[in-house]
Amino acid sequence: MTPALQHIPSSPPATPLLDAVAISDAVVQPELQNLRALAVQQLPQLAHELRQYLLYCVGQTGGHLGAGLGVVELTIVLHHLLNTPADRLIWDVGHQAYPHKILTGRKKAMLSMRQEGGLAPFPKRSESAFDCFGVGHSSTSISALLGMALIDGQQLNHVAVIGDGALTGGMAFEALNHMAHSQANALVIVNDNDMSINANQGGLAKFLDETGAEGGPEAWFTALGFTYVGPVDGHDIPVLHAQIKDLLSQSGPKLLHLHTVKGKGYVAAEEDPVGYHAIDKIDPINKIAKLSGPTYAQVFGAWAEQQADSDPRMQVITPAMVGGSGLSNFAITHSERIHDVAIAEQHAVTLAAGMACAEAKPVVAIYSTFLQRGYDQLVHDVALQNLDVLFAVDRAGVVGEDGATHTGAYDYAYLACLPNMLVMAPSSTQTTQAMLQLGYDYAGPAAVRYPRGAAPIAIEEGALEIGKAAVVRHGRGIALLSFGALLDEARLVAEEHDITLVDMRFVKPLDTQLLAQLMNHDTWLTLEDHAVVGGAGALVAQWLAQQNRDTKPCLLNLGLPDAVLPHATRSQVLAAAGIDAAGISAVLKELLD
User: Is there a catalytic annotation at residue 290?
Assistant: First the structure.
């Protein structure tokens, strides 16, 4: 067995076997004959080289590390046995798909991973024929695979690889139930490493450990209608190869249960799989770099601890995002009042609704892109019943290198349309704290929506009142109405061009009293880190259109375009959308000329 590496390579490692079998980046119609011509006895050497190259690439670009290291052997075996890209292979979530990308025509391009114009951070249909389904969110793979299998029939192999963390999502169980009923010819591989991003939560993790027990996974999946094999060592290539080859020869739904080690082959990642889920570039080698100031998530976490200290009714709910949401310390200091429900956003929202009905004060800490997954529950179970639930909506707007699947560009639209909902957009540490408290005390559902990254320290802040904006500066001719975290960029531009600047603060309700006072301006410019279609600017436009006046300001909405946003740094995406300081200034120069 090859010993685990102590360090991430700082220069390209020698990978002669990998170079011989990986498809060239320039090949238009890729095939994997060289890989499939290898003897099984050669595959461990290929795994060693692939793991070294993966470590080198992620060290150069940053990105998801632990999951990919854990499936190197599985990736090689699957492509050795399957006739990809004709056969269907789907990687749930996609964190573990880097080895797949390296083998399938993107080895050199891996050094552009997550960069503007480079490889996408997750499998993407438009990037490669080997990526038969685009992913990024969890628990979707089995449904998509079943859809393909029902149409393709028996002539192709169909394989989905899903982690035990993603298996906690209810959608995965819905798909398993349907797959068993349909008796479709498909193989589901459960990559069981006891981790998602953090350690897995819930009864499923314990259930998967009950191998051989009466009522354990073999009995359950067999009773459901699957041919079950496992658990199998996911790093033992000869055994893994034989088991998958045998299962592919059988018809009907099959499930292979693997045990793997997240971060396999790199000592630091094996010892700290949470910390090395993703890393920054090596300069020097570090985990994800820490910012100089507090992040919005950290501001939320600190507020949550203070509020829990003062109010015994407070309960915090998060769907597998304890660390990312800034709640790691809260989970230690208030362990009895945090509920990590695993990857179960629908359940998280309705759980909060139930708690509110029992006179608790629930707070749901959730990413904007994942709150979409619990939307019916947000409407039906919270908003329509006007329940006291506070949503701390993190990763709103442009998230950067994780790309379109993780962009939180739609929450103003889907939140503001709901009855009873209070929607707030902070621009600083102080307004974030104040809005969290205001939303917590509000009699009804409320959302505080903030981006990833550092929260500015405001120079001065006025008192916060529901539905009231704050005039940052008075100017001439043009009023710039800023919603949320782009206020600092707006401030620079407003001072440069001597225009009025307003921190709108509330998406719903709008400060219509102030808007009426601003009618003496010739032009209004709205600014938001959100899709311009259906965003806060659209709400301003709706209000303005309803005013019965002979003369009204000309209105221009600035925001994210009606398009799938690319993966790049946050600053690059904002610049491309024309909503950084330079872009806003360019618009103003045209208006003022």
Answer: no
